[in-house]
Amino acid sequence: MNNFLDLADLDRNEIRSLLALATGLERSPQPQALAGRVLGLVFMNPSLRTLASFQAGMARLGGNSFVISTGSSWQLEYRDGVPMTGEAAEHIREAIPVLASYADVIGVRAFAKGQTLEEDLSEPVFRALSELCPVPLINMESATNHPCQALGDWKTLDDLEVPGAGGKFVLSWANHPKALPLAVPSAVVHMAALRGMDVTVLRPEGFALPEPIMARAREAAAASGGRVGETDDRQAAMAGAQVLYAKSWGCTSAYGDADQDAALRARYADWTVAEDWFRPAAADCYFMHCLPVRREVVVAGDVLEGPRSRVIPQARNRMFAQMAVLHRLLSRSNPT
Ligand code: CP
User: Are residues 305 and 172 in the same domain?
Assistant: First the structure.
């Protein structure tokens, strides 16, 4: 493994091996494994979990990290041939080689622009970064992917002993005041399909996940024996569900059109996950969310704090999953 950009770059055995390493590091700390190694973290967008879990994970492995974030550093340009007359004072063509001369591995977060779906699906920032970065590169959330979230969530499902083959997983759109990116829903639907689960995307009209994202998930399901479907029928989606994973995302039928998005999402302001959503589900159906989450908007507080909720161990597992990634990318004792 030379980079960690997309779970789709790994086969199931490599993912299983990373998950075993994550669990091994959770149970048996290796406080010197990455002694003397340095992780550079570049945040072009805000974070709580990703920032803290990468720094904590690197420290637990004996390494060090530094953080570059928009607001405290120069805004970065990634496009080639564009006169830099705007906010961006530095180009990634200089910034990334400079940072790579200080660090052994670099993680980058660069959200979707949210203007055109085609541009965001083409991952322009990470395409440019992967050509420039001379050290291993980690995707800490790109325009349409969040593989660190997906790997941590896979570990959470394993910890909960939710079956891969045949386990019933529902990814539901939820109410939110803003048009959020597609990175988490895209990564999560792909992860659950890759895990061999029976996956249903529950979403209202206008919020269907784009066909390339659904096609990728169907392809993963075909390889793993899983299934991927979609519906706007909550009762049908939730029948027998073992996991409800809630997440909001922007309107896809008018992607990048803020007025149409707002008008459409206003119709679905009642898509706040509540206990009654779980009536058709398995009795012990779990609730998952990547966080941050808006209470009484995305989910009712009693569900978020109730016995179904696994959001805290889910966030904790980000750290162990990422420690496994760092260990695999950097440890001299591990084959690459
Ligand atoms: N889930 C997640 O990536 O959280 P942050 O945006 O806080 O990093």
Answer: yes
Report the domain count for the chain: 2
- 322 CA to centre of ligand 1 in angstroms: 13
pTM exceeding the 0.85 threshold for the entire prediction: yes
Distance 250 CA to ligand 1 centre (A): 17
**pLDDT value, residue 335:** 44
What pLDDT, in 10s, does the model give residues 53-96?
999 999 999 999 999 998 889 999 999 999 999 999 999 999 99
Same domain, 73 and 180: no
User: What's the pLDDT score for residue 319?
Assistant: 99
- How remote is the CA of residue 290 from the centroid of ligand 1, in Å? 7
Supply the range of the domain harboring residue 218: 161-309
CB 281 within 8 A of CB 172: no
**Ligand 1 lined by 47 (C-beta under 6 Å):** yes
- Contact between residue 92 and residue 132 where contact means Cβ atoms under 8 Å apart: yes
- State if residue 290 touches ligand 1 by the CB under 6 angstroms criterion: yes
pLDDT value of position 107: 98
Ramachandran area for residue 141 (φ above 0: left; ψ -120 to 50: alpha; else beta): left
DSSP 8-state secondary structure symbol assigned to residue 139: E
Mind listing the pLDDT tens digit for each residue in 281-302? Answer: 999 999 999 999 999 999 999 9
Does 300 lie in the same domain as 187? yes
Residues 169 and 135 in one domain: no
Mark whether 55 and 22 lie in a shared domain: yes
Is the CB of 48 inside a 6 Å radius of any atom of ligand 1?
yes
Give the residues across from 286 on adjacent strands: 243
Residue carrying the six token digits 């390339």: 212
Please state, for a pLDDT cut of 70, what percent of the chain lies above it.
Answer: 99
